[in-house]
Design goal:
Order of helices and strands: EEEEEEEEEEE
Radius of gyration: 14 Å
Largest sheet: 7 strands, mixed
Shape: elongated
Strand content: over 45%
Helix content: under 10%
């Protein structure tokens, strides 16, 4: 079993920066993918960025050039560096881990952290 702990959210002015952290507790398989999702009030939850065990990253178009996903394997932690934040980035951000062992893929979610961009 794996538990994820999201942190780092807060209130920031437009143009500001935040770094979110997702710490994983438990054993992680060698075939995995971490992703950050966000959900604004009244909207569906959308994937923002992801990184796999090979280090390949992918971003949704609206955050390209502003957000960076990275990982620290020694700390079992994934980060989302968010720069040039905009009001439309306001949402609850949640980390997701997908692990595959054989034919089985398991998914785990963090509890979410609120990001509010406002002047």
């Amino acid at each position: 079993q794996v538990q994820l702990w999201d942190s780092g959210g807060g209130l920031v002015q437009p143009g500001g920066s935040l770094t979110l952290s997702c710490r994983a507790e438990g054993s992680i398989s060698s075939d995995y993918e971490f992703a950050w999702y966000r959900q604004a009030p009244g909207s569906q939850r959308d994937r923002v960025a992801r990184i796999n065990n090979g280090g390949t990253t992918e971003y949704t178009d609206s955050v390209k050039g502003r957000f960076t996903i990275s990982r620290d394997n020694a700390k079992n932690t994934v980060y989302l560096q968010m720069n040039d934040l905009r009001p439309e980035d306001t949402a609850v951000y949640s980390c997701k881990l997908s692990m595959t062992e054989g034919l089985i893929t398991a998914h785990f979610w963090g509890q979410g952290t609120q990001v509010t961009v406002s002047s």
